[in-house]
Amino acid sequence: MDTAKWIESFIRALMCLLGILGNNWLAICSLPDRASRLRTNEALFLNLAASNLITNCLVDLPDTIADFANGWFWGKFYCKVFMFCAGLSETSSILSTLLISVFWYQKLVGSLRRGGAPVAMDNLHLVALLLAGGWVVAMAFSIPRMFFATLETQNQSRAECTDSFRSKRAKESYEITYVTLANAIPIAGIVFATARPDKPTSNPSSQVRAAKSVVAVASVFLVCWMTHLLLHIYSNVSHVSVLVEIASYIAASYTSIIPYIFLYGVRKLSCPCCK
Question: Is residue 176 part of a domain?
Answer without folding.
Answer: yes
